[in-house]
Design brief:
With 479 residues, the chain is of the alpha+beta class. It folds into two domains: 127 residues, Nucleic acid-binding proteins (OB fold (Dihydrolipoamide Acetyltransferase, E2P), Beta Barrel); 259 residues, BirA Bifunctional Protein, domain 2, CATH 3.30.930.10. The protein has an eight-stranded mixed beta sheet with strand order 6-10-11-20-19-18-15-14, with helices on both faces. A five-stranded mixed β-barrel has the order 1-2-3-5-4.
Length: 479
Protein backbone atom coordinates (compact mmCIF):
# COMPACT_ATOMS: atom_id res chain seq x y z
CA UNK A 1 0.00 0.00 0.00
CA UNK A 2 2.86 2.38 0.79
CA UNK A 3 4.51 1.55 -2.53
CA UNK A 4 1.23 2.25 -4.27
CA UNK A 5 0.99 5.68 -2.63
CA UNK A 6 4.60 6.36 -3.67
CA UNK A 7 3.81 5.49 -7.29
CA UNK A 8 0.72 7.71 -7.21
CA UNK A 9 2.74 10.67 -5.90
CA UNK A 10 5.39 10.27 -8.58
CA UNK A 11 2.79 9.91 -11.28
CA UNK A 12 1.27 13.19 -10.11
CA UNK A 13 4.63 14.94 -10.39
CA UNK A 14 5.29 15.12 -6.62
CA UNK A 15 8.75 14.18 -5.31
CA UNK A 16 8.27 12.41 -1.95
CA UNK A 17 11.99 12.56 -1.18
CA UNK A 18 12.87 16.25 -0.90
CA UNK A 19 16.43 17.55 -0.63
CA UNK A 20 15.61 19.79 2.36
CA UNK A 21 12.88 21.47 4.37
CA UNK A 22 12.86 24.50 6.64
CA UNK A 23 13.43 23.48 10.28
CA UNK A 24 13.94 26.57 12.38
CA UNK A 25 12.94 24.98 15.67
CA UNK A 26 13.30 21.66 17.46
CA UNK A 27 10.14 20.50 19.24
CA UNK A 28 11.21 21.39 22.77
CA UNK A 29 12.57 24.78 21.76
CA UNK A 30 9.39 25.56 19.84
CA UNK A 31 7.13 24.78 22.79
CA UNK A 32 9.17 27.05 25.06
CA UNK A 33 8.35 29.97 22.75
CA UNK A 34 4.63 29.87 23.56
CA UNK A 35 3.41 32.58 25.94
CA UNK A 36 0.26 31.87 27.97
CA UNK A 37 -2.67 33.92 26.75
CA UNK A 38 -1.05 34.60 23.38
CA UNK A 39 -2.28 31.86 21.09
CA UNK A 40 -1.56 32.00 17.34
CA UNK A 41 1.07 34.74 17.76
CA UNK A 42 4.42 32.92 17.59
CA UNK A 43 5.33 31.28 14.26
CA UNK A 44 7.50 28.17 14.14
CA UNK A 45 8.89 25.81 11.52
CA UNK A 46 9.33 22.23 12.73
CA UNK A 47 10.10 18.89 11.10
CA UNK A 48 10.08 15.27 12.18
CA UNK A 49 8.69 11.74 11.84
CA UNK A 50 4.94 11.18 12.04
CA UNK A 51 4.34 8.92 15.07
CA UNK A 52 0.70 9.54 16.07
CA UNK A 53 -2.43 10.30 14.05
CA UNK A 54 -5.83 11.22 15.51
CA UNK A 55 -8.32 11.75 12.66
CA UNK A 56 -11.22 14.12 13.46
CA UNK A 57 -12.70 14.14 9.95
CA UNK A 58 -12.14 17.69 8.75
CA UNK A 59 -9.07 18.06 10.97
CA UNK A 60 -6.33 15.92 12.46
CA UNK A 61 -4.21 16.05 15.57
CA UNK A 62 -0.86 14.39 14.85
CA UNK A 63 2.49 14.22 16.57
CA UNK A 64 5.93 14.30 15.04
CA UNK A 65 9.18 13.17 16.59
CA UNK A 66 12.48 15.03 16.30
CA UNK A 67 15.78 15.15 18.17
CA UNK A 68 14.24 16.75 21.26
CA UNK A 69 11.06 14.68 21.42
CA UNK A 70 7.48 15.04 20.21
CA UNK A 71 5.34 18.05 19.34
CA UNK A 72 1.65 18.06 18.40
CA UNK A 73 0.39 19.49 15.11
CA UNK A 74 -3.19 20.54 14.39
CA UNK A 75 -3.97 20.18 10.70
CA UNK A 76 -7.32 21.63 9.55
CA UNK A 77 -8.76 21.41 6.05
CA UNK A 78 -10.13 24.96 6.15
CA UNK A 79 -6.63 26.31 6.89
CA UNK A 80 -4.36 24.36 4.53
CA UNK A 81 -6.92 23.85 1.74
CA UNK A 82 -8.78 20.88 0.30
CA UNK A 83 -6.00 19.59 -1.95
CA UNK A 84 -3.27 19.79 0.71
CA UNK A 85 -5.55 18.22 3.30
CA UNK A 86 -6.45 15.33 0.99
CA UNK A 87 -2.74 14.71 0.45
CA UNK A 88 -2.07 14.95 4.20
CA UNK A 89 -4.71 12.31 4.96
CA UNK A 90 -2.81 9.87 2.76
CA UNK A 91 0.30 10.07 4.97
CA UNK A 92 1.35 7.00 6.97
CA UNK A 93 2.94 6.60 10.36
CA UNK A 94 6.69 6.86 9.90
CA UNK A 95 6.55 9.46 7.12
CA UNK A 96 8.82 12.47 7.64
CA UNK A 97 7.41 15.95 7.13
CA UNK A 98 8.02 19.63 7.69
CA UNK A 99 5.37 22.02 8.98
CA UNK A 100 5.05 25.75 9.61
CA UNK A 101 2.39 27.46 11.68
CA UNK A 102 1.61 29.27 14.94
CA UNK A 103 1.60 28.00 18.50
CA UNK A 104 -1.51 27.66 20.62
CA UNK A 105 -2.57 25.73 23.71
CA UNK A 106 -5.38 23.17 23.45
CA UNK A 107 -8.20 22.75 25.96
CA UNK A 108 -6.19 19.97 27.57
CA UNK A 109 -3.20 22.31 27.98
CA UNK A 110 -0.96 20.86 25.26
CA UNK A 111 1.12 23.32 23.25
CA UNK A 112 0.39 22.65 19.60
CA UNK A 113 1.31 23.98 16.15
CA UNK A 114 -1.68 25.20 14.12
CA UNK A 115 -0.34 24.14 10.73
CA UNK A 116 -0.46 26.61 7.86
CA UNK A 117 1.75 24.67 5.46
CA UNK A 118 2.91 21.05 5.52
CA UNK A 119 5.30 19.17 3.22
CA UNK A 120 6.14 15.47 2.98
CA UNK A 121 9.92 15.19 2.66
CA UNK A 122 10.58 11.44 3.04
CA UNK A 123 8.07 8.64 2.50
CA UNK A 124 8.48 5.64 4.86
CA UNK A 125 8.09 2.52 2.74
CA UNK A 126 8.10 0.19 5.74
CA UNK A 127 5.86 0.49 8.81
CA UNK A 128 7.12 1.21 12.31
CA UNK A 129 6.92 -1.53 14.96
CA UNK A 130 3.49 -1.84 16.54
CA UNK A 131 2.83 0.83 19.17
CA UNK A 132 2.02 -1.55 22.01
CA UNK A 133 4.51 -4.29 21.22
CA UNK A 134 7.47 -2.22 20.06
CA UNK A 135 10.61 -4.25 19.40
CA UNK A 136 10.01 -7.54 21.22
CA UNK A 137 13.25 -9.17 20.06
CA UNK A 138 16.26 -7.93 22.08
CA UNK A 139 18.59 -8.77 19.19
CA UNK A 140 16.49 -6.56 16.89
CA UNK A 141 16.84 -3.66 19.32
CA UNK A 142 20.62 -3.67 18.76
CA UNK A 143 20.57 -4.72 15.11
CA UNK A 144 17.98 -2.10 14.09
CA UNK A 145 18.86 0.60 16.59
CA UNK A 146 17.22 3.22 14.38
CA UNK A 147 13.83 1.62 15.06
CA UNK A 148 14.58 1.36 18.77
CA UNK A 149 15.33 5.09 18.85
CA UNK A 150 12.03 5.89 17.13
CA UNK A 151 9.71 3.78 19.28
CA UNK A 152 11.52 3.57 22.62
CA UNK A 153 11.68 6.89 24.47
CA UNK A 154 13.77 5.36 27.26
CA UNK A 155 16.42 4.21 24.79
CA UNK A 156 16.48 7.64 23.13
CA UNK A 157 16.92 9.38 26.48
CA UNK A 158 19.66 6.99 27.59
CA UNK A 159 21.72 7.36 24.43
CA UNK A 160 21.18 11.12 24.26
CA UNK A 161 22.48 11.31 27.85
CA UNK A 162 25.60 9.44 26.78
CA UNK A 163 26.34 12.15 24.20
CA UNK A 164 25.89 14.86 26.83
CA UNK A 165 28.19 12.97 29.24
CA UNK A 166 31.01 12.89 26.67
CA UNK A 167 30.45 16.55 25.81
CA UNK A 168 30.58 17.54 29.51
CA UNK A 169 33.82 15.62 30.07
CA UNK A 170 35.46 17.45 27.17
CA UNK A 171 34.36 20.86 28.45
CA UNK A 172 35.40 20.02 32.00
CA UNK A 173 38.92 18.97 30.99
CA UNK A 174 39.39 21.88 28.60
CA UNK A 175 38.47 24.24 31.44
CA UNK A 176 41.33 22.64 33.40
CA UNK A 177 43.68 23.43 30.48
CA UNK A 178 43.94 19.87 29.21
CA UNK A 179 44.58 19.47 25.47
CA UNK A 180 42.60 16.89 23.50
CA UNK A 181 44.61 14.85 21.01
CA UNK A 182 44.19 11.90 18.67
CA UNK A 183 46.59 8.96 18.62
CA UNK A 184 46.84 6.03 16.15
CA UNK A 185 44.32 3.19 16.18
CA UNK A 186 46.75 0.94 14.30
CA UNK A 187 49.84 0.03 16.34
CA UNK A 188 52.84 -2.13 15.53
CA UNK A 189 52.97 -3.18 19.21
CA UNK A 190 49.85 -3.72 21.32
CA UNK A 191 50.83 -2.01 24.57
CA UNK A 192 49.49 -0.06 27.52
CA UNK A 193 47.32 -2.88 28.88
CA UNK A 194 47.15 -6.64 29.24
CA UNK A 195 44.62 -7.73 26.61
CA UNK A 196 44.35 -9.82 23.46
CA UNK A 197 44.42 -7.47 20.42
CA UNK A 198 42.68 -7.59 17.06
CA UNK A 199 45.17 -8.09 14.24
CA UNK A 200 45.09 -6.65 10.73
CA UNK A 201 47.44 -6.30 7.78
CA UNK A 202 48.66 -3.05 6.24
CA UNK A 203 48.92 -3.74 2.51
CA UNK A 204 50.94 -0.67 1.55
CA UNK A 205 53.59 -1.24 4.21
CA UNK A 206 53.43 -5.03 4.00
CA UNK A 207 53.32 -5.51 7.79
CA UNK A 208 50.84 -6.61 10.42
CA UNK A 209 49.31 -4.08 12.80
CA UNK A 210 47.16 -4.35 15.91
CA UNK A 211 44.10 -2.32 16.79
CA UNK A 212 45.06 -0.42 19.92
CA UNK A 213 44.18 -1.88 23.31
CA UNK A 214 44.98 1.41 25.09
CA UNK A 215 46.14 4.94 24.29
CA UNK A 216 48.45 5.18 27.30
CA UNK A 217 51.89 4.78 25.76
CA UNK A 218 51.21 7.31 22.99
CA UNK A 219 49.83 9.88 25.40
CA UNK A 220 52.82 9.50 27.72
CA UNK A 221 55.12 10.10 24.77
CA UNK A 222 53.36 13.48 24.55
CA UNK A 223 54.29 14.17 28.19
CA UNK A 224 57.89 13.66 27.10
CA UNK A 225 57.27 16.06 24.22
CA UNK A 226 56.01 18.87 26.47
CA UNK A 227 52.23 18.37 26.55
CA UNK A 228 51.75 18.83 30.30
CA UNK A 229 48.00 18.10 30.36
CA UNK A 230 46.61 15.83 27.69
CA UNK A 231 43.60 13.60 27.11
CA UNK A 232 41.96 11.44 24.48
CA UNK A 233 38.44 10.06 24.26
CA UNK A 234 38.94 7.19 21.87
CA UNK A 235 37.77 3.81 20.70
CA UNK A 236 39.63 0.85 22.20
CA UNK A 237 39.60 -2.70 20.81
CA UNK A 238 40.16 -5.86 22.87
CA UNK A 239 39.57 -9.26 21.29
CA UNK A 240 38.07 -10.79 24.39
CA UNK A 241 34.75 -11.87 25.87
CA UNK A 242 31.36 -10.20 25.69
CA UNK A 243 29.34 -9.72 28.87
CA UNK A 244 27.04 -7.26 30.61
CA UNK A 245 30.06 -5.06 31.35
CA UNK A 246 32.35 -5.90 28.41
CA UNK A 247 32.23 -5.12 24.70
CA UNK A 248 35.17 -5.80 22.34
CA UNK A 249 34.99 -2.21 21.06
CA UNK A 250 34.48 0.43 23.71
CA UNK A 251 35.19 4.08 24.48
CA UNK A 252 37.86 5.09 26.96
CA UNK A 253 38.92 8.46 28.31
CA UNK A 254 42.61 8.54 29.17
CA UNK A 255 44.00 11.66 30.82
CA UNK A 256 47.56 12.50 31.93
CA UNK A 257 48.75 15.43 34.00
CA UNK A 258 52.45 16.22 34.40
CA UNK A 259 53.75 17.13 37.85
CA UNK A 260 50.81 15.35 39.47
CA UNK A 261 50.24 11.83 40.82
CA UNK A 262 47.42 9.42 41.65
CA UNK A 263 46.28 11.76 44.43
CA UNK A 264 45.89 14.54 41.89
CA UNK A 265 43.80 12.16 39.77
CA UNK A 266 41.56 11.57 42.80
CA UNK A 267 40.69 15.25 42.94
CA UNK A 268 40.18 15.36 39.17
CA UNK A 269 37.78 12.39 38.96
CA UNK A 270 35.80 13.47 42.02
CA UNK A 271 35.29 16.97 40.61
CA UNK A 272 34.47 15.58 37.17
CA UNK A 273 31.82 13.15 38.38
CA UNK A 274 30.14 15.47 40.89
CA UNK A 275 29.75 18.20 38.25
CA UNK A 276 28.54 15.55 35.80
CA UNK A 277 25.79 14.46 38.21
CA UNK A 278 24.84 18.06 38.99
CA UNK A 279 24.93 19.55 35.49
CA UNK A 280 24.07 16.64 33.17
CA UNK A 281 22.20 13.93 35.08
CA UNK A 282 20.41 16.54 37.25
CA UNK A 283 18.65 14.43 39.91
CA UNK A 284 15.10 15.68 40.43
CA UNK A 285 15.63 16.36 44.14
CA UNK A 286 18.63 18.60 43.45
CA UNK A 287 21.00 16.27 45.30
CA UNK A 288 24.08 14.41 44.04
CA UNK A 289 22.36 11.05 44.47
CA UNK A 290 21.37 8.55 41.80
CA UNK A 291 19.67 5.20 42.14
CA UNK A 292 21.74 2.09 41.53
CA UNK A 293 19.45 -0.03 39.36
CA UNK A 294 20.87 -3.46 40.29
CA UNK A 295 20.79 -3.09 44.08
CA UNK A 296 18.12 -0.41 44.49
CA UNK A 297 20.51 1.58 46.70
CA UNK A 298 21.17 5.29 46.35
CA UNK A 299 24.69 6.22 45.31
CA UNK A 300 25.67 9.49 46.94
CA UNK A 301 28.34 11.36 44.99
CA UNK A 302 28.12 14.20 47.51
CA UNK A 303 28.99 11.97 50.47
CA UNK A 304 32.23 10.43 51.60
CA UNK A 305 34.39 8.78 48.96
CA UNK A 306 35.94 5.91 50.89
CA UNK A 307 39.63 5.05 50.62
CA UNK A 308 40.67 1.49 51.47
CA UNK A 309 43.76 -0.59 50.73
CA UNK A 310 43.43 -3.62 48.46
CA UNK A 311 45.23 -5.85 50.93
CA UNK A 312 42.88 -4.88 53.75
CA UNK A 313 39.86 -5.79 51.62
CA UNK A 314 41.36 -9.19 50.78
CA UNK A 315 42.21 -9.99 54.40
CA UNK A 316 38.71 -8.98 55.44
CA UNK A 317 37.02 -11.08 52.74
CA UNK A 318 39.10 -14.18 53.53
CA UNK A 319 39.04 -13.70 57.30
CA UNK A 320 42.80 -14.23 57.21
CA UNK A 321 45.06 -11.42 58.38
CA UNK A 322 48.10 -13.37 57.12
CA UNK A 323 46.71 -14.07 53.65
CA UNK A 324 49.59 -12.47 51.77
CA UNK A 325 52.13 -14.59 53.68
CA UNK A 326 50.40 -17.85 52.74
CA UNK A 327 51.74 -20.33 50.21
CA UNK A 328 50.17 -20.71 46.80
CA UNK A 329 48.55 -23.99 47.82
CA UNK A 330 47.04 -22.35 50.91
CA UNK A 331 45.68 -19.49 48.79
CA UNK A 332 44.07 -21.91 46.32
CA UNK A 333 42.43 -23.72 49.23
CA UNK A 334 41.26 -20.38 50.66
CA UNK A 335 39.73 -19.31 47.36
CA UNK A 336 37.91 -22.63 46.97
CA UNK A 337 36.57 -22.23 50.52
CA UNK A 338 34.91 -19.02 49.31
CA UNK A 339 33.15 -20.98 46.54
CA UNK A 340 35.45 -19.84 43.74
CA UNK A 341 37.44 -21.95 41.31
CA UNK A 342 40.85 -20.99 39.98
CA UNK A 343 43.39 -22.42 37.58
CA UNK A 344 46.33 -23.88 39.56
CA UNK A 345 48.64 -22.55 36.84
CA UNK A 346 47.70 -18.98 37.69
CA UNK A 347 50.16 -16.70 39.43
CA UNK A 348 49.49 -15.99 43.10
CA UNK A 349 48.40 -12.40 42.43
CA UNK A 350 45.86 -13.69 39.89
CA UNK A 351 44.43 -16.12 42.43
CA UNK A 352 44.09 -13.34 44.99
CA UNK A 353 42.58 -10.96 42.46
CA UNK A 354 39.84 -13.50 41.73
CA UNK A 355 38.61 -12.87 45.28
CA UNK A 356 38.57 -9.13 44.67
CA UNK A 357 36.78 -9.29 41.32
CA UNK A 358 34.16 -11.89 42.34
CA UNK A 359 33.58 -11.31 46.06
CA UNK A 360 34.62 -7.74 46.86
CA UNK A 361 34.16 -5.44 43.85
CA UNK A 362 30.43 -6.26 43.38
CA UNK A 363 29.74 -5.10 46.97
CA UNK A 364 31.37 -1.66 46.55
CA UNK A 365 28.30 0.40 45.65
CA UNK A 366 29.26 3.81 47.06
CA UNK A 367 32.27 5.62 45.49
CA UNK A 368 35.33 3.76 46.76
CA UNK A 369 39.01 4.31 46.00
CA UNK A 370 40.73 0.93 46.27
CA UNK A 371 44.37 1.80 46.97
CA UNK A 372 47.80 0.17 46.70
CA UNK A 373 47.19 -2.74 44.33
CA UNK A 374 49.76 -5.53 43.84
CA UNK A 375 52.55 -4.37 41.55
CA UNK A 376 52.02 -7.33 39.20
CA UNK A 377 48.64 -5.93 38.15
CA UNK A 378 50.17 -2.95 36.37
CA UNK A 379 53.79 -2.50 35.22
CA UNK A 380 53.24 1.17 34.32
CA UNK A 381 52.79 2.63 37.81
CA UNK A 382 55.27 3.75 40.45
CA UNK A 383 56.06 1.25 43.20
CA UNK A 384 54.92 2.38 46.65
CA UNK A 385 57.76 3.65 48.82
CA UNK A 386 56.29 2.15 51.99
CA UNK A 387 55.46 -1.26 50.45
CA UNK A 388 57.51 -2.46 47.46
CA UNK A 389 54.94 -5.19 46.72
CA UNK A 390 52.32 -2.59 45.80
CA UNK A 391 51.99 0.35 43.42
CA UNK A 392 50.71 3.92 43.89
CA UNK A 393 47.37 3.50 42.19
CA UNK A 394 43.67 3.53 42.85
CA UNK A 395 40.74 1.80 41.26
CA UNK A 396 37.60 3.88 41.64
CA UNK A 397 34.76 1.41 42.07
CA UNK A 398 31.13 2.57 41.99
CA UNK A 399 27.99 0.51 41.65
CA UNK A 400 29.95 -2.73 41.99
CA UNK A 401 32.25 -2.15 39.01
CA UNK A 402 35.53 -0.45 38.23
CA UNK A 403 34.89 2.96 36.68
CA UNK A 404 38.31 4.63 36.75
CA UNK A 405 41.81 3.28 37.47
CA UNK A 406 44.58 5.85 38.02
CA UNK A 407 48.33 5.74 38.62
CA UNK A 408 51.31 7.68 39.73
CA UNK A 409 53.04 7.04 36.42
CA UNK A 410 56.36 5.23 36.27
CA UNK A 411 58.94 7.58 34.72
CA UNK A 412 62.17 5.72 35.59
CA UNK A 413 63.18 4.10 32.27
CA UNK A 414 65.27 1.37 33.93
CA UNK A 415 62.51 0.33 36.33
CA UNK A 416 59.99 0.49 33.49
CA UNK A 417 62.14 -1.75 31.31
CA UNK A 418 62.49 -4.31 34.11
CA UNK A 419 58.72 -4.28 34.73
CA UNK A 420 57.97 -4.74 31.02
CA UNK A 421 60.42 -7.63 30.71
CA UNK A 422 59.03 -9.35 33.81
CA UNK A 423 55.49 -9.09 32.42
CA UNK A 424 56.46 -10.18 28.88
CA UNK A 425 58.48 -13.21 29.95
CA UNK A 426 59.92 -14.79 26.82
CA UNK A 427 57.71 -12.74 24.47
CA UNK A 428 60.09 -9.77 24.25
CA UNK A 429 58.67 -8.79 20.85
CA UNK A 430 55.59 -7.46 22.70
CA UNK A 431 57.62 -4.78 24.50
CA UNK A 432 57.28 -1.24 23.17
CA UNK A 433 60.98 -0.36 23.01
CA UNK A 434 60.27 2.98 21.36
CA UNK A 435 58.33 4.00 24.46
CA UNK A 436 61.33 3.05 26.62
CA UNK A 437 63.50 5.17 24.31
CA UNK A 438 61.13 8.10 24.87
CA UNK A 439 61.36 7.65 28.66
CA UNK A 440 65.15 7.81 28.46
CA UNK A 441 64.77 11.38 27.17
CA UNK A 442 62.99 12.25 30.43
CA UNK A 443 59.30 12.17 31.30
CA UNK A 444 58.05 14.45 34.09
CA UNK A 445 56.31 12.88 37.08
CA UNK A 446 52.63 12.50 36.24
CA UNK A 447 49.27 11.22 37.26
CA UNK A 448 47.32 9.24 34.71
CA UNK A 449 43.77 7.91 34.67
CA UNK A 450 41.38 5.95 32.49
CA UNK A 451 37.60 6.23 32.58
CA UNK A 452 35.42 3.67 30.82
CA UNK A 453 32.76 5.85 29.17
CA UNK A 454 30.42 2.91 28.51
CA UNK A 455 30.56 1.67 32.10
CA UNK A 456 30.09 5.20 33.39
CA UNK A 457 26.95 5.48 31.26
CA UNK A 458 25.65 2.13 32.57
CA UNK A 459 26.00 3.58 36.04
CA UNK A 460 24.39 6.94 35.26
CA UNK A 461 21.47 5.60 33.22
CA UNK A 462 20.65 2.40 35.10
CA UNK A 463 21.13 0.35 31.92
CA UNK A 464 21.13 -3.42 32.26
CA UNK A 465 23.93 -4.04 29.79
CA UNK A 466 26.81 -2.25 28.08
CA UNK A 467 24.98 -2.86 24.79
CA UNK A 468 22.21 -0.55 25.98
CA UNK A 469 24.58 2.44 26.09
CA UNK A 470 26.36 1.77 22.78
CA UNK A 471 24.53 2.92 19.67
CA UNK A 472 25.71 0.04 17.49
CA UNK A 473 27.24 -2.85 19.51
CA UNK A 474 28.98 -5.74 17.73
CA UNK A 475 26.70 -8.59 16.65
CA UNK A 476 27.09 -11.71 14.59
CA UNK A 477 26.13 -11.06 10.96
CA UNK A 478 22.43 -11.67 10.46
CA UNK A 479 19.34 -10.59 8.63
Amino acid sequence: MRRSKLAEMRAGGFDPFRASVEQKHFSGDAMKLHVDGQDNVVSVAVAGRLVTIRDMGKSQFVKILDQQGQIQLYVKRDVIGDEAYAAFKKLDLGDILGATGTLFKTKTGEITVRVERCTLVAKALRPLPEKWHGLSDAEQVYRQRYLDLIVNAESRARLMLRSRVVSHIRRFLEAQQFIEVETPVLESTAGGAAARPFKTHHNALGVDFFLRIATELRLKRLLVGGYDRVFEIGRIFRNEGVSRKHNPEFTMLEVYQAYSDHRGMMTLIKDMLTTLIRDVVKPEDGSLKIKHAASGQEIDFGGEWREVNYKDLICEATGDAEWFARSKAEKIAGVEKLGLSVNPAWEEFEITNEIFSKKIEPTLIQPTFVMKLPKELCPLAKISLDDPTTIDVFELTIGGMEVAPAYSEQNDPDVQRAMFEAQAGEEKQNIDYDFLLALEHGMPPAGGMGVGIDRLCILLTGAESIRDVILFPQLRPGA
